[in-house]
């Protein structure tokens, strides 16, 4: 699947979800559901990172920044909704509902992807679809690649080596200070 096809599938799912939620009379709840899905996606991403030993604060911060950007887009959409209402056009909350639905679908796919990488049983048809979504148009994987050397490093041994190096550096500095005091006398 090329990128525009993935975007088209997400958009269609967002429109269907938005229309269904609109018909059922749930308007503001879509934003609450989106925030809840964002929370679940963040937690499942942290669990995936911890389990695959690829937990990275930079990637986590980038994810949080993206989630904040989604909230900014929702605020902008709410502003547009407000503008249309004051112009006499009753949208019935359909604009913000559609945008929220798009991001709900996006977060849901991300949660499903994280759960699949955690090893949870995912139906084969969904798993194959997720594999296709994780490829860029040239067919290359977009998965996070972890340096294999990091798996071989024992953190406890590494911490002991760092502590030992700190003790050696402190003793060398103390020796330099004593030598300087001896030269001054």
From TrEMBL:
Its main location: membrane. The keyword Ligase does not apply. The chain crosses the membrane at residues 63-85. Belongs to the bacteriophage holin family. Cp-1 holin subfamily. GO terms for cellular component: membrane. NCBIfam families: holin_tox_secr. Keywords: Membrane, Transmembrane, Transmembrane helix. It comes from the Bacteria. It is found in: Membrane. The keyword tRNA processing does not apply. This is Holin. InterPro entries: Phage_holin_4_1. It is a multi-pass membrane protein.
């Amino acid at each position: 699947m090329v990128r525009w096809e993935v975007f088209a599938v997400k958009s269609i799912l967002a429109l269907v979800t938005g229309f269904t939620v609109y018909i059922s009379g749930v308007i503001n709840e879509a934003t609450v559901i989106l925030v809840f899905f964002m929370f679940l996606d963040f937690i499942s991403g942290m669990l995936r990172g911890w389990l695959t030993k690829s937990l990275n604060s930079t990637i986590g911060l980038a994810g949080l920044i993206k989630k904040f950007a989604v909230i900014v887009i929702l605020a902008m959409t709410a502003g547009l909704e407000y503008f249309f209402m004051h112009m006499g056009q009753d949208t019935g909350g359909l604009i913000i509902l559609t945008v929220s639905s798009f991001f709900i679908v996006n977060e849901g796919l991300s949660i499903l992807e994280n759960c699949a990488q955690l090893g949870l049983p995912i139906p084969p048809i969904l798993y194959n679809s997720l594999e296709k979504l994780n490829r860029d148009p040239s067919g290359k994987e977009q998965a996070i690649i972890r340096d294999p050397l990091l798996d071989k490093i024992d953190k406890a041994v590494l911490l002991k080596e760092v502590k030992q190096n700190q003790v050696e550096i402190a003793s060398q500095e103390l020796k330099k200070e004593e030598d300087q005091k001896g030269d001054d006398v």
